Amino acid sequence: MENFKVSNKGSATLFKNSFLERLTRTNFLVPVLLYSFTGVAVAVYAAWSLPLPVYALVLLFFAGWMVFTLFEYLIHRFLFHFEAITQKQKEVQYKIHGVHHHFPKDKDRLAMPVVLSLVLAAMFFFLFTFLLGKNGYPFFAGFIIGYAAYLYIHYAVHRYRQPHNFLSILWKHHSLHHYKSENTAFAVSNPLWDYVFGTLPPKKAIKKEDIERLPDE
Question: Which one of 3, 21, 22, 63 has the fewest CB atoms closer than 10 angstroms to its CB?
Fold first, then answer.
């Protein structure tokens, strides 16, 4: 990703067209509430309509959630951080993710535009139900709840101070990605996949005192 000075204040204009520019800005509560409600509604529908035991519904739900965390990791690592070579590629990368690294505390760009996320949600719904039949309902419910959880976690680590409890690992992990090692620590809501794929920040390159001096996100 192209180097630029990270700013914890301010924002950037991505499009001269005011309508397109407005579409790039999202109040995170809108998708969080939308997908939380959708996930719960689909889960309740699946529980009432499918002839499955409770344990099977729960397993499908959490399988969907875990698949989302893997999807989150993969899209962040390979799409958002693709190797941009040409100027045009660099411009595209900046618009889809670089702007977030440039202005990590810009609250209006901490969630994907709702229009785009709705299209993706519909695609995944049809994919899961095509592959799993009606069993795709609880699977999709877990997947979409996983997305809602990711949105809340991502917003929290950028906008609230790091808590002094077990959740602090999420703040530290994502802060390292933004301020010390942008080519590692790609997972946001579940650091598991950085362990699995070997993309944890290098301990030798990042000292304990460096972590302690990270900006509060």
Answer: 3
Q: For 204, phi and psi rounded to 5 degrees?
A: -70, -35
The pLDDT of residue 207: 56
For helices 29-49 and 114-132, what crossing angle results, to 10°?
A: 20
Average pLDDT taken over every residue of the chain: 91
pLDDT tens per residue across span 42-80: 999 999 999 999 999 999 999 999 999 999 999 999 999
Where would I find the H helices in 53-206? 54-74, 87-93, 99-102, 114-132, 136-159, 168-179, 192-197
Residues 98, 103, 108, 110, CA torsion sign: positive
State the residue for tokens 């419910």: 141
DSSP secondary structure, 16-51, as one string: SSHHHHHHT---THHHHHHHHHHHHHHHHHHHHHS-
The string over 164-177, giving b where at least 16 C-beta atoms fall within 10 Å of a residue's C-beta and e elsewhere, is eeeeeebbbbbbbb
Residue with tokens 């998708």: 31
Q: What gap in Å lies between CA 67 and CA 185, rounded to an integer?
A: 18
User: Given pLDDT bands bounded at 50, 70 and 90, which one contains residue 10?
Assistant: confident
Q: Between the CA of residue 191 and those of 1, 70, 114, 187, what are the distances in Å?
A: 21, 10, 25, 5
**Residue from 107, 117, 89 nearest 98 by CA:** 89
